[in-house]
Amino acid sequence: MTSSILAQLSYDAALRALDLQERTVEQLRARTGILLAASSLTTSFLGAQTIQHAHGIGALALASLCGSIGLSLYVLIPKRGLTFGLGGRETYESLIEVADEEEVHRRLAYWLTALRTENQAEIDGLDRLYIGAALALMLQLVLWSIALIGTLG
After folding, report:
1. CA R_g for the chain
2. Cα–Cα separations (whole angstroms), residue 96 to 92, 106, 109
3. What pTM was estimated for this model as a whole?
4. Half-sphere exposure in the Cβ direction for 5 (13 Å, CA)
5. Which domain range does residue 27 map to?
6. Residues of 26-58 as b/e, b for ≥16 C-beta within 10 angstroms?
């Protein structure tokens, strides 16, 4: 295998990895939107029935609701630190002096890989926040259910 083919394959792989990372963030945000809606629906159905009767448990459930909403909103807010592509002008100006196509692909592969690495820490943090929001929703469900059972008895 020639080094020019290797450089092209490396560039293609780096580009695909960055595209996959962008799709991962889009899917995480879509799931977070659903989680936010579920949290609101849970409170509107179960909370409306129990909030007047279950003061302590109701307060904990409301705190859990606030946690779930807060974490979800943070995940949904656009992040300036995430970059999923190279700027055309900057790329052109950086590579105009490079005459060798192999070297262009090699440099692009390294730049795209660096972007992916920089993004990953932020994405891992968003994933942890999503898990926290999901756990807060589950806690909210449990607390509202306990409160609801208390109002029936």
Report:
1. 24
2. 6, 14, 16
3. 0.84
4. 2
5. 3-152
6. eebbeebeebbebbeebbeebbeebbeebeebb
Among 49, 72, 57, 74, which residue's Cα sits nearest to residue 136? Answer: 72
- 3-state DSSP assignment of residue 53: coil
| Residue range 116-136, pLDDT digits in tens | 999 999 999 999 999 999 999
pLDDT tens column, 57-104? 888 988 999 999 999 999 999 988 899 988 889 888 888 888 788 888
Domain count along the chain = 1
Q: Any idea which residue has 């029935």 for tokens?
A: 49
- Tokens at 26, concatenated: 């889009």
Residue 7's Cα: distance from chain center in Å?
A: 31
